[in-house]
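Today's session is about reading a structure prediction critically. Students often jump straight to the picture, but the first step is always the sequence itself: look for stretches that repeat, for charged clusters, for runs of hydrophobic residues. Only then move on to the predicted structure, which in these notes is written as discrete structure tokens rather than atom positions. Here is the chain we will use throughout the hour.
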Amino acid sequence: MVYLKNRIWNSLDWTTVSIYVLMVVSGWFTIYAAGYDFDHGSIFDLSGRAGVQMVWITLSVAIGFSLLLIENNFYDIFAYWTYIFLIFLLVLTIFVAPDIKGSRSWLVMGSFRLQPAEFAKFATALALARFMNGYRFDLMRPRNFWGALFLIFLPLCLILLQKETGSALVFLAFFIVLYREGMPGTIIFMGICTILYFLVALKLDELYWGITPLSEYVNLVLTLLFVFIMLFSYKKGRPTSKVIVYFFGGLLSLSVVASFFVEFNLCRVTLGILILTILVVLVNYIRFRASRYLYVILFALFSIIYLYSVDYVFNEVLEPYQQTRVKVALGMIDDPGGAGYNVNQSKIAIGSGGFFGKGYLNGTQTKLKYVPEQDTDFIFCTIGEERGFFGTTIVLLMFLTLIIRLVFLAERQRSPFSRIYGYSVASILTFHLAVNIGMVIGIMPVIGIPLPFFSYGGSSICAFTILLFIFLRLDAVKHH
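Below is the predicted structure for this chain, in token form.
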């Protein structure tokens, strides 16, 4: 045991540990500032949120350093069991959790509350790393690829059933890991296109060019253009690809010209051109057996199916309050007293901080409680008001340093298990950071995910600490 402790302590990445401690302490002081008033007790007062967070931080640090004492093989051996246990908790949560602010995501036992969705992140990272740890593992074999997707989407869907959309979307961060391990960039491109189609469908809804629905038409044209780009970039001696682009591109241009003389629905013509393009590409795939043609076909079919399901997903799947938040984020509606209140007040608080801020414990927006959830999801606005542009830049640099460090550590791992898990940690933190900051400054919908190590919450700080320290334990041995 003594030898194990010495070995771990000597090889532990203290740079990452130092950044972790700095961020956790900074978050603790920020939580105190967010809830501070002149009649309140000290930062150690257990009746306040800062005092409670101190207890959670102490517990998290104890758990984190305890994880360092466990043999690294334990995480590989018990990865699936950990995943199964968290899946069980997610299923249990759906049926027994009380309704709290519209979601059923908390297991409540007296005064103790636990959010399994937070812990499911590291469990999924372990299971994914275990699944992809095989000798000469090839992600793009259909069985392997669909297996990896199953591990990611099972907890995601269960969390969606809890009506906890923000926590569910975090699992999309694992696609960064899949890309690092060999997934074609085409799939990432499809994900970007999914977002683009969604934005176009909403922003241009109810607009028409003659009798042509503009949102549908623009998305169909975008799909056709993306297909043309994919075909045109194919450089393996397939001149028919360029012929397809020129011929069907010409038809698309002629249809636009004809619409000035004869009124007709351009969507139908464009959809017909797209379907004909798919059929011609299918013929070429059968002839040449080139995987690029198959990717083009799958992309086009996926796009068509998605385009005609956007309205249904937005109107039938999303809750009314989620629809409103999306519209507010896209600038489609202005609701400063309702759905847009949080973001509006958050931007006011951040903007009022100026370059150096108003000073610690001197934020007026914070003191007067203008920003709801200011010590949880919107804690970044407290930093912006009291520490200004300078302070928020320091916080962002801390996150950037941590993420870059994690990528460096992941790349030096000798085992795929450690590397994949390391990239999972970096990807999850990156997703949380990007979405939380985007949400607070109003460029993303309010979906309610915490800022790692800063936001108030026992489940959050414990889960992020476990996520990080498991990787520190794996790195302490695997790179030697």
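Discussion point for the tutorial: The two ends are 19 Å apart (CA to CA).
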